[in-house]
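Final report, Chapter 2: Outcomes

The project's central promise was a pipeline that accepts a single protein chain and returns its three-dimensional structure in a standardized token representation, suitable for archiving and comparison. That pipeline is now operational. To close this chapter, we reproduce one record exactly as it appears in the project archive, with the input sequence first and the structure output second.
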Amino acid sequence: MDVANARDFHWQTLAPLPSRRVYCSLVEVGGQIFAIGGCDDGGAPVNAFEVYSPEANQWTSLSPMPTARAGVAVAALGKRLMVIGGVGMQQSPLKVVELYNIDEGRWRRKSLLREAAMGISVTVKDCRVYAAGGMGVDLRPQAYLQQYDTLKDIWVHLPAMPTPRYAATSFLRGTKIYVLGGRQSKYAVNAFEVFDIETRSWTKFPNIPNKRAFSSFVITDNNLFSLGGLRQGGTYRQPKFTKTMDLFDLEQGGWMKMDSSCFLRKRRADFIAGSLKGRVVIAGGLGNQPTILDSAEAFHPSKKKWESVSPMPTPRCTCSSIVVKNCLFAIGGVNQGPSDAAEALCVSDS
């Protein structure tokens, strides 16, 4: 694959979100981006539900979610969107599951989660939804793995994760669900565990070498990148923003020894990240002091170094993000308060 040149990256300023918010969830269906829920200026969950059309550069408000909530998990099942858990108006995790039919333009209630949770990690395989972990009403991390049966409208418990956590990153590769990182209470987890759908069993992989909160994970064809984040203070250590990069070889099954020349150019946490045309790209987030960053970087795999690309037009942290067609979209987030900014880092076909 051709690797994009650093100068081929550029930002597009898009139509702003209809309202300022943070913690909205994004999902792409048919080239369109759906933005679901989130928190408003006052920190209250909203029932906002919009779709962004890249061709028209416009947001269209759709039928609002029946239950206002933030930080939901979303699964796309063809032309249906399943919205799972999240935080409700009482600032408490929810059991609520609602399904939106794009063609019909209407919502339906579905069978409740067996346990209320926010910060669930969701993957989809063969129209089956797998929901891992989450934070319960008691604020404790959960180890549940639940599978939704679309035909019977029920949630079924599968073998629990070895490490309870919420806000983990999960992705599907073949018939395996990879679950990385996450948190227990306020503290980062460096566990890396894989669930085999066929054998219904968990395998513990080598831990992420550097434990840090608010880092980002990016998956490419054969590699998994663990990037940046906040190293939390221990008994004698102050919290510290990092520029660490760890690389896991999915074929070899191990973490590679990384030279410091491969580290990020800037220390950062709570940023957006994705893979575009052979490059891992990152943008925004929080840096030292702590300040909100506008800088963006792209990793060159053969040069084994990060290069600066155009900065974000609106510096932000806590953005919602998604990669669609050679663009990394940054939606909402925080810049001295919730933002309505919508921007995309795109790569030219030069």
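Archive annotation: The mean pLDDT is 94.
This record, like all others produced under the grant, will remain available to the consortium after the project formally closes.
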